[in-house]
Write a structure and sequence with these properties.
The chain has about 130 residues and is mainly alpha-helical. It contains 5 helices and 2 strands, in the order H-H-H-E-H-E-H. It is about 45% helix and about 10% strand.
Length: about 130
């Protein structure tokens, strides 16, 4: 059973809220593992009584992490089967390394990374094209 446009938007908002809560609040993440029905309700996802909730932390092969269409399809499948599978990957790791002085100079000058051979400036003049 396909979700109507409004239902899809509401699901996406609630699922996104679930991800953010799971990634930013250890208590919520624990509740999500121990009592997923209640934790999901906190984020706006209501699971029908008698249904099963499966929280998947390790995304299976073929299910592109972060692909909202996959998660919507799983939710729709759950509405038919009574088994709701939600992909809640572990907190993403953000690379917070700093840029070197040379990298910063290249960025401000409008050039690509030193390993690349093409350089760009801010205007399409005869020197650049």
């Amino acid at each position: 059973m396909a979700l109507a446009q409004q239902e899809r938007a509401e699901f996406i908002n609630s699922y996104t809220r679930t991800l953010i809560n799971a990634w930013s609040d250890e208590g919520y993440s624990t509740r999500l593992s121990e009592n997923p029905r209640e934790a999901l309700a906190e984020s706006g996802l209501t699971i029908p009584s008698g249904s099963e909730v499966v929280i998947v932390r390790n995304i299976p092969d073929g299910h592109e992490e972060g692909n909202m269409d996959v998660q919507v399809a799983l939710w729709e499948k759950g509405m038919e089967s009574g088994v709701f599978e939600l992909h809640i990957p572990e907190t993403p790791v953000v690379d917070a390394t700093e840029l070197s002085e040379g990298d910063l100079a290249a960025v401000t000058a409008g050039v690509q990374a030193p390993s690349e051979s093409c350089y760009y400036c801010c205007c399409p003049c005869c020197c650049c094209t």
